[in-house]
Amino acid sequence: MLGLYVHVPFCFQKCNYCDFYSEDDKNYLINDYIEALIKELKKYKSEFNFCFDTLYIGGGTPTSLSEKFLDYIFSGIFSIYPRTSFKEITIEVNPDTINEKKAKVLSLNVTRVSVGAQSFNDNFLKLLNRIHDSESVKRAVEILSEWGIENINLDIMIGIPGQGLNDVFIDIKKAIELKPQHISFYILTPYPETQFLEKYSKNLPNDDLIEKMYLGGVDLLQKNGFMQYEISNFSIPGKECIHNLNYWNLGEYIGIGASASSFFNNKRYTNIKSIEGYIEMIRKNKTPIYFEEEITADKRLKEYIILKLRTTTGIKLEEFYDKFKFNFVEKYSNIIDKLTRDGYMRKTIDKISLTTKGFLVSNKILQQFI
Ligand code: SF4
After folding, report:
1. Topology of domain 297-367, per CATH?
2. Domain spans in the chain, listed from the N-terminal domain onward
3. Which of 18, 63, 91, 186 to mutate to test the pocket of ligand 1 (most atoms within 8 A of CB)?
4. pLDDT per residue over 191-250, tens digit each?
5. What is the pTM of this model?
6. What DSSP string runs through 184-249?
């Protein structure tokens, strides 16, 4: 399977915790940027005659673009790879950017919308410097549903400074009331470079509270019919995100645009993290790639273990043996036995996976395998 990721690095304002590459004062470059995106995609088409299974337009805030520019992106991509050739087409939206006109454009072009709700508590949304409030999340979902978009994800965040256990339950319940097909329920990561940690370190929920939030949240989601299929991802059956599943299955993908990453032909590579730099490189017919690494057999093994153990399916032992020609359980028996005894890992005759408690400390667990 091969996925196509398109990065749209424009936002109305920067959220103070955000680590994604995006700019909030470069809208004058949008037209040139889309032109460059289309040129980069055409180059792939001429060099490799492949087809993509999924398309994911992320950011940034893709829907901060006007309808005219959204049309430009969609028509540009679909003139190279027809819309019907994709099994799934997702776009990320910020709730405040959705109106009837944009919903109409999306309804004609995508099969799935991911809404960055984060919380339904307006105080927390303000603290995070989000541009939207809880009302705009409800309005966005209503408009998108009225325009016939039947596959909607809501992002819900835990670990916000000052957030309590009950706040998390309220957010989940309010999200469920909107009847989405998918919920991403994830823990806020305070990256040092965003200065979020420095500013709020005293007010962040401690590890015990995070544990209660995560375990309680997972339980509530499951009781309401949302099946967990990855550490942070839940869906009603059959509505898992195919594009993201491909990442965790170590499938190949091509990323186009500034800062976009690709995994293709046994290499991982990333484009330059600058809108101007990206446009310039593409205009000069130079490669926009600024970092590239070969995926050796050893790296591939480690990545396979790390990515597979993020999913509830985990590592299928027969599939593992076919790929790597050794027995996973025999090689890591000490680690597996201890993790299983301590309730972090589940071992059945044909697969190994993490438990919900294991997902919570997955970073520490996964390090033991590398
Ligand atoms: S809207 Fe998304 S990409 Fe933009 S600053 Fe906020 S979190 Fe980052």
Report:
1. Arc Repressor Mutant, subunit A (1.10.10)
2. 2-247, 297-367
3. 18
4. 877 778 888 988 999 999 999 999 999 999 999 999 999 999 999 999 999 999 999 999
5. 0.97
6. EEEE----GGGTHHHHHGGGSPPHHHHHHHHHHHHHHHHHTT-EEEETTEEESTT---HHHHHHHT
Instruction: Provide the residue type at 217 as one letter.
Output: G
Give residue 258's pLDDT. Answer: 98
* Cβ of 15 below 6 Å from ligand 1: yes
- Fold of domain 2-247: pyruvate-formate lyase- activating enzyme (3.80.30)
- Residue whose CA lies nearest to ligand 1 atom number 6: 15
How many Å apart are CA 229 and CA 176, to the nearest integer?
Answer: 17
CA neighbor of 1 nearest in space, from 249, 220, 208, 222 = 249
Taking residue 84's Cβ as centre, other Cβ atoms within 10 Å add up to 7
Task: Tell me the CA–centroid distance for residue 300 and ligand 1, in Å.
Answer: 31
Would you call 146 exposed, middle or buried from its count of C-beta atoms within 10 A (0-12, 13-18, 19+)? exposed
